[in-house]
Structure formats: C-alpha cells, structure tokens
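Researcher: Quick test of sequence recovery. Tokens follow.
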C-alpha cells in the first residue's frame, strides 16, 4: 500500500490523527468488522499522519502512559469543532463558552496516547473466539478468593449502611431493605430473586452468589433517593458507628466531598447539569470513560456545538434466550433464582434476563467505537457505568483506592459473565479511579512477552494487595 508504514516502524512512533468531517448520521453496529492492520485503517479513513518520536516514558514500565482528553481531542481535531480553540470565539458569549469548554477539556476521560494503533491481545480473532475467551476469564475471576471476599465484605457494609440509614428516619430494617433493593428491578435482571426483606438479608449476609448480591447492588444504584437521603443526613459519627473508626472516617470524607459537588450541580440549569456537573452521589467522575457513553454538547445559549456523540444507542431489550440449566451460566443458578425465573413452572424454564448486550448497540463513529475497533477489542455496551457507580459507592463505604484493584476483578467477573459488558469496557470504566500502579494498558507493546499483556493488568503479575479490611490477596493466574 502506498501509505502503509511497516509494523515494526509503527511501534516506534506515536500517531496524531486529524479527523475528516463526516456526515451527521451515525451508523450503529453490533459487531464491527476488524481491519487488517493499523496502517490500512489510517489509509481507509484518509487521515493525514503526523509522526513524532515516542518519549522514554512511553516505552518503559509495565504499562502504557495515559494522556489527558484535551491532548487526545486536539489530536483528533474535535475540540475546535465546538470550542474554536482554547478561548472560544470573540463576542458577548466568549467568556461563558470558554468556561464550558475549559470544564470539558480539564475533566473529560483519560485516553491512552502512546502508540495509538497498538493491537489488542484479541486483534484478528473471531468474534466467537473473543466471546469464549472473555467469558472464560470471567469464570476464572469468579472462582478467586479476591472475588468471594470482596463481595462478602461489600455486601455486609452495604446492608449495615441501609439498615442504619433507615434508623435515622425511624424505619424498620425489613421495610428499608425492600424499599432500597426491591423497587427498581425485576426478573429481567440477572440474579434478581424477589423483593422480600428476608430473602434480601439472606442473600447479602449468608449465601448469595455473585449474581444475586451484585444484582441487588445494581437495583440500588437505580434507586438513588435511598442513598441520597442517607448521604445528605449522616454525620461522621454515623459512618464511624456503621463502618468502624478508620473506614467510617474515610467514607465520611468521600461523601462530604461528593455532597459539595451534588449540591452545586443542583443549582445548575437542567440542560447542563448532566454534561457539566455531578448530579448524584454515584455519578461517574468527570475524567471517566463512562462519559463517552452519552453525547455532550455546549449549551445553546453559548452557541451549542457537539463535543462528542454518545457511543451507546438504546434499542429496547430482548431476553437472553437461555434456559435455567444452560451450561453457559456460571455459577449455576441458585434454587432461589430457578424458583423465581420459573414462576411456579417445573424447571428447566426460559430465562427472562435482559443483559446489556441485548439492549444496547454501539454507535460506529463514536469515539469509543473508533478506538476499540482500531485496536481490535470486543464491544458490548460501551464503558461500564455500573463499574463507575460501584467504585464510587465502594469509596463511600470506606474502602480505599488500593482496594479498587480487588473491585476491578469483581466487576469484570460479574459483568462479563452476565454479558452486560466486555473486558475492555469494565477496565476502561475502572481506569479513572485506579491508582497509577494498577493502571490499564491499551493494546500491546513491542516489548510485551505475555500472551495477554493488556488483560493481565486486571491483576498485574506479582501484585500482592493488603486490603484495608484485612485479607491479603496474592498474585494469581486467571488467563488461559
């Protein structure tokens, strides 16, 4: 090819693309075809290529370096489309428009900026092979002590928070549990059993499986008034009484910081609070990849202008098409799950679950789809908002940033096996809040010797984590 760059050479440069204008209509895809190689992709998109030498920081260390979204969007010539440079256009709205552009440039997601065309470990494998590989990884993670102990501790803290929070309002525990977990989910949600307080207590405190426990957590994240009521009222003594002195102090600090942001956002005009604010206590941080799931534009009173199009397109949900005894389900359904799904019929019966893969299409020319396709990653439903929500909730329950390494394992295990997200989608969603030593790697580097170096970052080789609540988790094998 006339514009091809040899692969070896491409591994020594960082590519800066200028995106040509495309029609406004966004295509939607389920499974996107993969390009033969990164250089062919550049030619197909007719993007002029500008090269510069990779710095030493780009090619050393166990993981690739990250750059700010401002740098990446300028590289992709997207910011000027809406913001006309760093300071906005001249005129009466210049200052306000510049302020909005500055917010987005400063707080949007971190994006890998090294060798932009580095292939993923999944590159050039068939969609069916990617699916099997990822689900086996998820099963391997489910069986780990990390998953079991982290899920158990989280469930205990969450139960105590809900019950103690209800006491503030003079509400008994059974009513509080039903209100918190039972009102927003149905048999369409994997792991949902019923909304009886006795069942919820048993699942959270005794013998719930990963699906049942985190299914309840998912229900709660869709029921923000319950958490908001607790977080707006509770003081430091409350958190220390529920979680212990150290964890309680951490939790109170996190909640107070988030409260300031939530209160400030509440006073913003409704047309800007979701793109430019933090409207609730679990909202993804402004440097989260989850923000790319939804389109963002400047307010109309400062000229409008699309900052980016959303990567997700809700299509309406369909059921998973499996039976309750399907060997594709891990762990196998509990007696509670079977009884609920079959609704009085003799098992096996058809599952009523509606996973993310059956509800969402990926918008082909969204930023996420472009990057995932270029590198060859499997896509399901975009960067996982649930992962970001759970991370914020974990910090609000007194877990530490280092503890989030264990939570990344849990989110990947749960959401990939349930077919709500892919591996890269949980890893991307976790990235904004992960300590730098656990940061992700996008694609493969020329120096990588592992078969799956990018996915190995889920739990970096040789890592030992001493959790804030006691258990010590050693390095473990989870990749085939």
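Model:
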């Amino acid at each position: 090819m006339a514009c091809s760059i040899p692969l070896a050479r491409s591994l020594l440069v960082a590519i800066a693309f200028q995106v040509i204008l495309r029609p406004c209509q966004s295509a939607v895809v389920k499974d996107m075809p993969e390009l033969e190689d990164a250089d062919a992709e550049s030619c197909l998109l007719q993007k002029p290529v500008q090269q510069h030498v990779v710095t030493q920081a780009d090619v050393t260390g166990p993981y690739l370096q990250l750059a700010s979204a401002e740098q990446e969007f300028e590289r992709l010539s997207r910011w000027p489309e809406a913001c006309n440079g760093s300071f906005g256009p001249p005129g009466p709205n210049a200052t306000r428009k510049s302020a909005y552009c500055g917010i987005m440039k400063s707080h949007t997601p971190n994006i890998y900026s090294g060798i932009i065309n580095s292939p993923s470990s999944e590159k050039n494998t068939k969609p069916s092979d990617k699916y099997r590989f990822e689900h086996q990884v998820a099963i391997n993670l489910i069986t780990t002590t990390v998953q079991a102990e982290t899920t158990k501790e989280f469930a205990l803290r969450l139960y105590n928070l809900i019950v103690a929070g209800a006491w503030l309002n003079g509400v008994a525990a059974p009513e509080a549990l039903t209100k918190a977990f039972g009102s927003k989910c149905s048999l369409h949600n994997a792991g949902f059993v019923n909304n009886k307080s006795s069942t919820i207590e048993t699942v959270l405190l005794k013998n719930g499986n990963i699906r049942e426990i985190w299914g309840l957590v998912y229900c709660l994240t869709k029921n923000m008034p319950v958490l908001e009521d607790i977080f707006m009222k509770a003081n430091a003594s409350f958190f220390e009484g529920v979680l212990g002195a150290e964890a309680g102090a951490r939790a109170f600090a996190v909640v107070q910081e988030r409260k300031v942001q939530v209160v400030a956002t509440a006073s913003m005009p409704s047309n800007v609070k979701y793109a430019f604010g933090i409207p609730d206590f679990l909202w993804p941080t402004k440097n989260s990849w989850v923000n790319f799931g939804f389109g963002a534009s400047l307010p109309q009173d400062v000229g409008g202008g699309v900052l980016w199009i959303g990567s997700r397109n809700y299509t309406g949900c369909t059921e998973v098409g499996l039976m309750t005894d399907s060997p594709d389900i891990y762990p196998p359904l509990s007696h509670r799950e079977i009884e609920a799904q079959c609704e009085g019929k003799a098992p096996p019966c058809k599952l009523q679950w509606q996973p993310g893969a059956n509800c969402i299409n990926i918008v082909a020319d969204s930023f996420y789809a472009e990057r995932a396709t270029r590198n060859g990653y499997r896509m399901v439903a975009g960067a996982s908002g649930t992962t970001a929500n759970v991370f914020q909730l974990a910090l609000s329950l007194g877990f530490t940033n280092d503890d989030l390494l264990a939570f990344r394992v849990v989110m990947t295990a749960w959401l990939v096996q349930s077919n709500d997200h892919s591996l890269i989608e949980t890893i991307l969603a976790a990235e904004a809040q992960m300590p730098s030593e656990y940061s992700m790697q996008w694609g493969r580097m020329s120096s990588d010797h592992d078969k799956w170096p990018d996915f190995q970052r889920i739990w970096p080789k040789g890592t030992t984590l001493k959790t804030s609540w006691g258990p010590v988790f050693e390095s473990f094998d989870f990749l085939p």
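The chain has a mean pLDDT of 82.
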